[in-house]
Design goal:
The chain is an alpha/beta fold and 214 residues long. The chain has a single domain, classed as 3-Layer(aba) Sandwich (Rossmann fold). Helix content is 29%, strand content 28%. The strands form 2 sheets. The chain has a 7-stranded mixed β-sheet. Helix 5 links the parallel strand 4 and strand 5. It is globular, with a radius of gyration of 16 Å. 45% of the residues are buried.
């Protein structure tokens, strides 16, 4: 089956499960098969996480949709992503932010950062900037950010990320070691409001404000 038909089948599945039209339209414009090693490409449009090497995974499409839905990314938005992987989630958020927006994405593994830069450039995502850093410290160079998305589970919500979040702004992050919860952090009028959005399973977030020696 051609890639576009497989992608449409996945989009139809996610729509039946309640994903919003704007997020699904963005996902429909991103060729997910390009953001993973060739050996797992046949499963690109299955709703499952896939191994991309270096003890990392690309999140299941339904999780990408759920996180984007919680972030509620408007056009022109400045987004920070922690955990680039090979760049798929960044591309979806770039579609939502549009040409006037920018996605700054941070990866700690050099090989993945290089691969993400290559595929994002090839596909024309000029509004995505990839950095090799300790993502637990955020990216203060371009703060504050309207939205922050974290694709790995932290022991607690890293203080630097909350500090780099704009007011108003939204941060979505999985928290926990063996039992993880997806947390929505909102900054409104100087107040920080945290809401538990349910159980999830992510690889650990490593770094100064993440897990150590995992």
């Amino acid at each position: 089956m051609p890639w576009d038909r497989r992608r449409r089948s996945l989009i139809d599945l996610l729509r039946r499960e309640g994903a919003g039209d704007r997020v699904l339209q963005a996902m429909d414009r991103v060729p997910r098969e390009q953001f993973m090693p060739e050996n797992v490409r046949p499963d690109a449009y299955e709703d499952t996480p896939l191994y991309i090497g270096h003890n990392q995974t690309i999140s299941a499409p339904s999780m990408v949709a759920a996180m984007c839905q919680l972030l509620d990314i408007p056009e022109g938005c400045k987004v920070l992503e922690i955990g680039t992987g090979m760049g798929y989630h960044a591309a979806v958020m770039a579609e939502l932010a549009g040409p006037a927006g920018t996605v700054f994405t941070v990866e700690r593994i050099p090989e993945l950062a290089d691969q993400a830069r290559t595929v994002l450039s090839k596909l024309g995502y000029d509004n995505v900037k990839v950095f090799l850093r300790d993502g637990t410290e955020g990216l203060p160079d371009f703060a504050p950010y309207d939205r922050i998305s974290v694709a790995a589970a932290a022991p607690d919500i890293p203080k630097p990320l909350v500090e780099q979040l704009n007011d108003p702004g939204r941060l979505v992050i999985p928290v926990g070691r063996y039992f993880q919860q997806l947390m929505l952090v909102e900054k409104r009028g100087g107040h920080v409001i945290t809401t538990d959005k349910g159980g999830v399973a992510f690889v650990p977030l490593l770094g100064k404000y993440g897990f150590k020696g995992y």
